[in-house]
Amino acid sequence: MSTNLANAPTVNPTPGNPAPATPTPANQVISPGREVWLSMRANRGAMLGLIIIVLLVFCAAFADVISPHSYAEQFRDNVLQPPVWQDGGSWSFPLGTDSVGRDMLSRLIYGTRLSLLIGAIVVTLSLALGIGFGLLSGFFRGGPEITIMRLMDIILSMPSLLLSLVIVAILGPGLINAMIAVAITYVPHYARLTRAAVMSELSKDYVTASRVSGAGTLRLMFDVVLPNCLAPLIVQATLSFSTAILDAAALGFLGLGAQPPTPEWGTMLADARQFLEAAPWVVTFPGLAILVTVLAFNLMGDGLRDALDPKLKR
User: Which of 247, 257, 286, 296 has its CA 20 to 30 A from that of 32?
Assistant: First the structure.
C-alpha cells in the first residue's frame, strides 16, 4: 500500500513533540583537504601568493603562445630600446630590448618556464633523497643513523651557496650541474625533518598495531609512517622552491649556471650589469621577476604552514 507524501500530515513542534533535528554546517564533517583550503582562503597573503603562482605557471605553460617574439631572436635595429612608456619606446617591445636587441618581455616569459622547472627539479630531487635518508636514519638506529646524520651535519656546516659553488666547480658549469649542486645542499633539511617526524610517529599506537599485524619494514616506512609525515615536508618543499630559484639565479649570475643565450633570470642579470646606468630596465625587470616569484612562494608557504600545523591554529 503506497502513501502519498504530499498529503502526509505536517508535524508541528510542541514541547512534547519536538521537531526533528536538521543538519547544520557545524555538524557537517569537513575533509582535511577542504579544511586546508578554507584556512588558506582566510589568509590573504597566501591567496595572493597562490594567484601569482597560478599566473606564473600559466606563463610558463603557454610561453610559446603569449610571447611576442622568440627569446633568442635579435633585432639589431632596436638595440637597448627603452620600454614603451619612455621616450623612444615601442609597443613591438613593451619592456624594451637588451644589448643585442632581444625582446625583454619574451625573455622574461621564457625565463619563467625555466625558473619554475629549476625549482621543481631541485625540490623533487632533494625531497626524494632527504626522505630516503630520513626514513633510514629513523628506522635503523645506531650505526646507520649516526653515519647519515653526521654526513648531513657536515653538509649543513657549510654555507649552501659556497657548497653549490664547490660542487659546480667539480662538475663543471651548466644548468644541469647547477641544479644537482643546489639539490644536494637541500637534502639535509628534508632528512632531518623526516627523521624527527618518523621518530615521533614510531611511538604511536597505530604503528605498533601495524607491527603486530605483520607489516614489514618497507610497508611501515612508505605505507604507514611516511603519509603521516608529509605535512611538514610539503611546507618545507614550498619554501625551498623559492630558495632554489634564488640559488640557481645566483649561480647563473656568477656564470656557473645556465649559459647564454638561455633566458634564465640570473644569467640575464649578469649579461646586463654593465648597462645598469645606461639602460636600467635590462637589470630591473629580471630582478623584479625574481623578487615577485620568491615572494609568492614564501607567502604561499607561510599559508600552508599555518594550515597544516595544528599548533598554529587558533
Answer: 296
